[in-house]
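stuck on whats below:

***
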Amino acid sequence: MSALTLSSSSAATLRADAVVVGVAKGPDGPVVAPGGEPLDQAFGGSLAGVLETLGASGGEGEVTKLPAPDGVKADLVLAVGLGDAPEGDGPYDPEALRRAAGAAARALAGRKKAGFALPAGDEASLAAVCEGALLGAYSFTEYRGKEDKNAKGSKSAGKGRGGKGGKGGDGDRNAPLAEVTVLGAKPRDKAHKAAAERAEVLAAEVNRARDLVNTPSNDLFPKSFAAAVQSAAKEHGLTVEVLDEKALAKGGYGGILGVGQGSANPPRLVRLSYTHSKAKKTLALVGKGITYDSGGISLKPAGHNETMKCDMSGAAAVFAAVVAAARLGLRVNVTGWLALAENMPSGTATRPGDVLTMYSGKTVEVLNTDAEGRLVLADALTRACEEKPDAVVDVATLTGAMMLALGNRTFGVMANDDAFRTAVHDSATEAGEPSWPMPLPGHLRKGMDSPIADIANMGERMGGGLVAGLFLKEFVAEGTTWAHLDIAGPAFNESGPFGYTPKGGTGCAVRTLVRLAERAAAGDVV
């Protein structure tokens, strides 16, 4: 991940490859946002006019690059759009700053150092700029071919022109921006330092989730995923327990075993926990971890398999959120349950029409083996509730129906408690993750009635995302506060990058879960 530093230096005097300035939409054209005054002066007070001549409007995410004028130590000025300017002297929206910083950082890939002269005078704005820049600089290069430096005609990275910043050229354009320096901050101020440190932890853990989601299924399967959790637990002083296929069979985890029995890679259930000696609340987080989803015997049609390595995004988010809580030292106990399986068709796979006996003792008629996420989550939810946490939140790329309802950038929130659903939704909003409260209509439950089992894993086609939520609710213990996050849309970005969101794995829900844990630690929820 990019290094992060705070600096009180001027945007004109910082020695760097580039300096980033914010531009907003004003009533009469683009206006330079606070923090960019030194650069505007270097342009003779005409920076906004120059940008307008080049076609810049200040629209959100718009990036315009300019050669730096005399008097500026950096080689390059990058102007990034912030959207509409706030009225009067009001602050800029933190999410607008987050997205702008992310777009700028991504545009500066391959550079060694950039200064961010965006409006960052208060802690919330500073945190947003730090977070956005670190998230936007993300790049997954693990499987990229390495350049043969001995090949004829090859050039060593960073051998470009030296420039005023003395930092060399662009270097490896696949590499993320190496160092982010946020200007206008107070490096010795406790609040500013705390905001920056929190942003570093959040970005690192979101990027951990992104890496896992982007890793192909031939390298990330239940056993290797569990090993990654064990390694992180050792590093951060967390408690971890892994149930393998034998332990799952002995414990009666029929849902997880039923989904995973068609694969050569057997399933796992991982419990990862962080405890604080002064905690008064306990959150249980449950993540769907289907490391590859072929649909099983109910095989997905052509064109729907290529991105199914992302079906473990919920487990990745839970894993990263627990580690983040530990690294931030939150005064709340957080337990993560990762239900890991690979859903494959074979002679041993669960068939449509089979009946599974779940960990709870309930029986489920499997009408569609591609509705497998709810089966592994059901077992994990039952197990999580046995520890009597104050609240349980499950996270899953669960249904295509939720994508049809809310699109690719918004996740749905369902719950058995209206106040808790609102708290989760508010936490997501505060974190900058779009979400929407969804109902759990009781009349849809009847569609899952089975003539031979306690419940079927499928119900009415219309409202399928809500049906899935109702199925999960059946496995939540009476009196336990619970919420369900269906992140099927925003978990994996198949289009081009935007703001601080890359193509591929996004790390969706990590920041929401961390914010919810912070609010629980403060006594604001549950």
